[in-house]
């Protein structure tokens, strides 16, 4: 019989709501203690530990598996090829340039432009970004974009 364990990572579900654990991109720091916990259980076969990530977890799970040698199998379901490209597409080049400058004045302007996009009601961007400020513990819309997407010079456009 297989043993299954579900990990509610920082920045989601009860880890965020109840424990106030914000999102962290270094998911290997989250998975390694979970594997330690699994290996302490007598009903877990140490040669058969699998890691599955869905959605954003589909991007984070391979990163964790690359540094966690005790994971024997990886399943990554993801609808995004590049999380950074997705954000670039949502906010556009002008906002990405402002965010990349990392200046207070640029952040104010970028946040104002992002608010305009949210107020336009033309997409679901507003809900996603309001959620992201909570998940990432950010104090501004521009700070969220800086956390989740690299500066434009590092974004690979297809």
Number of helices: 7
Order of strands in the sheet with most strands:
1-2
Calculate the terminal CA-CA distance, rounded to whole Å: 45 Å
Which stretches are poorly predicted, pLDDT < 50 over at least 5 residues?
152-158
Radius of gyration: 18 Å
Total number of strands: 2
Overall mean pLDDT: 79
Name the structural class: mainly alpha
Query: What is the string of helix and strand elements?
Result: HHEHEHHHH
Largest sheet: 2 strands, parallel
Broad shape: elongated
Helical content band: 40-55%
Range of strand content: 5-15%
Notes on the protein architecture:
The chain is mainly alpha-helical and 158 residues long. It contains seven helices and two strands. A two-stranded parallel sheet has the order 1-2. The protein is elongated and about 55 Å long. The protein starts with 12 loop residues before the first helix and ends in a 10-residue tail after the last helix. The model is unreliable at 152-158 (pLDDT under 50).
């Amino acid at each position: 019989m297989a043993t299954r364990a579900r990990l509610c990572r920082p920045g989601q579900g009860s880890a965020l709501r109840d424990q106030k654990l914000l999102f962290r991109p270094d998911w290997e720091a989250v998975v390694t203690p979970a594997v330690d916990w699994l290996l302490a259980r007598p009903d877990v076969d140490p040669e058969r530990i699998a890691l599955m990530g869905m959605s954003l977890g589909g991007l984070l799970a391979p990163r964790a598996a690359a540094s966690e040698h005790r994971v024997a199998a990886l399943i990554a379901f993801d609808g995004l090829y590049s999380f950074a490209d997705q954000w670039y597409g949502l906010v556009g080049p002008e906002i990405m340039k402002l965010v990349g400058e990392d200046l207070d004045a640029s952040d104010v302007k970028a946040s104002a432009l992002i608010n305009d996009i949210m107020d336009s009601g033309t997409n679901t961007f507003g809900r996603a970004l309001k959620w992201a400020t909570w998940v990432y513990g950010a104090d501004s819309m521009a700070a969220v974009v800086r956390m989740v997407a690299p500066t434009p010079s590092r974004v690979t456009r297809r």
